[in-house]
Every structure is written in C-alpha cells, then in structure tokens.
C-alpha cells in the first residue's frame, strides 16, 4: 500500500487588501479610524486546493508580499522552513527595533511569513484531511477561551453601513455603539459584552486617560463583577516606572496581570521587582531576538504572542517551548481582525501545551466577516476548535469583493491612529511616555 501523498505546487497567490468597519476605539496612539485594514492572502495549488490567511493590512506589507511572490510560486506548501529562509535572505533580517513604539507592530517580514505559513498550513490540512491544530501537535483542549476586551470609545460603530447583525452581535450591538469614557461607561460596556459572548475575564485597554481615572475603572469593574472575574489593564507602555509601581500597587490583588505598564525590558523588570502582580507584554518582548534580553533582566511573566507578529503558528509553538524553559507563561494578543485570523488563533490556542489565561480578541468589535460560514460563535466566552480540514473556514468571495471595494473607497493605506485622533482633538500628538 502506498500511503505517500504527493505535495502539490503553489501556482497562484492572490493578495486582497480589505477594509473592515471599526468603531472609534481609543488607545495610547490615538483613535481607531472608521475602518481597520486587513489583507487576505489566498494560495492556490496546481491541483486547485486553496489555502487562506489574514494579516494586518498596510501598503508596505502588501508591497512586500508582491515582492515575495516569485519565492512562493512553484513551491510546495510543505517547504515552510526553506521558504522562510529564502524570504529572510531576500529581504534581509528584520530587527526587533523595527517594531516601533506604537501599540501595534510595524514590521513587515514577520507578517509576510505569517501570511504564507498559515495559508500553506491550510492547504496541507486540506490535503491530509487534518485540521491545522493537528499539524501543530494536536488538540490540548476542545474550546479556546477568550477575554472581554474593553475600550474607551467615542459614540459610534465605525464604517458607514453600521452593523451586520447576527444573533450574538445583535445582543450587544446597541451597547457597542455607546460612548465609554468613564468608569460607568466601561462597566456598562463590560456587562453588555459579557452578557452577549459569555466572557469570563476582562481586559481594559488603557493609556487613554490619566492612570487614576483608568485605575478607578478597574475598581468599578471589580465592584460590578466581583473577585472571580479576572481583570487586566494595558496602558501600552505610556506610564513611567514610578507611575507603574504606584498604580500597580493600588491594583495589587485586584488584577490578574498588568500588561505593558512601562516601556522597554529594563523598565518592565524594575516594575516587576516592585510588584507581586505578574507583568505581561506584547511590546517589550516581541521577537526571538528579544528573548536573551528578557531572560537577562526578567522583563515579564507572560508573553502575549501573536502569530502575525512572531512569524506564524509554528513559530508561536516554538515560542511556547522557550516560555516553558524560561519560566514564562504564553498567552495571546490581538488587533482588529476577522474570522480567518480568529480561526488561526483558535487552532494555535488549542494546540498550545499550556493556556493559563483567556486570550485577547477584538472580534466583538468587528461587524464584517469574510468567511462563508458567517461570524464565529462564542459560548461562555470560548470558541470551539474547527474540525474540518485546514483552518476549517472558506473564503466568502462576495464578501471579499465588497470589503476590497470598501478598502478602495475609504482611501486608507495604513493604520494611523494619531491622524484620526487629530480630527477630534486638533494638535493631539502620540507620546511614547505620557504619565
Ligand atoms: O494589547 C495590545 O497592545 C493591543 O491590543 C494593541 C492594539 O493595537 C490596541 O491597542 C488597539 O486595537 O488599539
Ligand atoms: Mg498589549
């Protein structure tokens, strides 16, 4: 019996930039624009198997994908290591410093590789009949739990067409549009989001108002939800070391972890030594190159990985081993995203050996979808791992065309929260440290 499966070759790569409606969410770098940009990559093999992926959208990443095209076409989707090496040789090494100071990651190559890898894994899954989670080492859990991700926000739902309703989104669509600018607004948002999606832990995006006001919101959440709902706050490194220690001490015993209170591994390590609360990061340790520094100073307790930023799902599995070796926990960061990214996050979340914290997701803030099965359903805050081969999602070509048109119409080419904020507060400037 010959069980050998012949791997096909990639014959086509379709790169489609899309714009998805995004509400006016506030963060350390300013304000979300009415649309968030994503890029959908579809790889098609010579025997017509197609694999998909989704990454943050940005013209320079899209240009890099185009430049990488000749390294992808004709290759077998199983040759991930050699494709990765060739991309690195072609573009040159990307340094950790290229990540930049914003809450999001400004690198290109990690995104390019993540896009290619996830689409190839989707293809390999379809060829072998296995879900991606099985290609990553197999399922450690059936359902992957997420946290409610709260934002200070202005009134509105983003985009022009408002909200595409499904039952779950409908339940919270009214609250989703309401402004939240104080502790009461944040508690209202949390109750609505948790009621609709069943989340069992809560993250507040901070770095928007002064730390006393944001800490008050955490105390208001604690009063509203009690001690059994874990809370976290993420000021995206805008606090000084002194501010971080001061407010970190106030929230000691109230939050499960403090995320990126201050900038840089050294500062994080000073804060970490002063507090009993664990520190998490998606800003100071964001690449393999950062690991030696992190270990040397003890920068954090939890690394919030993101397969889009760490170069794919397999890289994130490698990171999990490193985390175990050096006494870190691994959890997950997110950005505004649709169902292809969510599917990839769920497969990864299901395969990770340890998952002590509920993962981040922006998904409740999004109203568009690009997968044909419609929006993902959360039960008790968790998503069941898709069991179909590959990622378990199919592209909705009509939705893709509509969201691409939305991209062309909206005129945005990259994320720029500072410019968006200036439309509301003239002269507003991003500062890398504010309080
Ligand atoms: O945990 C984080 O730092 C994020 O989720 C980064 C995002 O870019 C967030 O700040 C946002 O969506 O505004
Ligand atoms: Mg963060």
Automatic annotation (TrEMBL):
Keywords: Lyase. One of its GO terms (molecular function) is racemase and epimerase activity. Residues 183-278 form the Mandelate racemase/muconate lactonizing enzyme C-terminal domain. Pfam families: MR_MLE_C. Coiled coil: none annotated. It catalyses: D-glucarate = 5-dehydro-4-deoxy-D-glucarate + H2O. It is an enzyme of class 4 (lyase). InterPro entries: DgoD-like, Enolase-like_C_sf, Enolase-like_N, Enolase_C-like, Mandelate_racemase_C. It comes from the Bacteria. PANTHER family: D-GALACTONATE DEHYDRATASE-RELATED, GLUCARATE DEHYDRATASE. This is glucarate dehydratase. It comes from Niastella koreensis (strain DSM 17620 / KACC 11465 / NBRC 106392 / GR20-10).
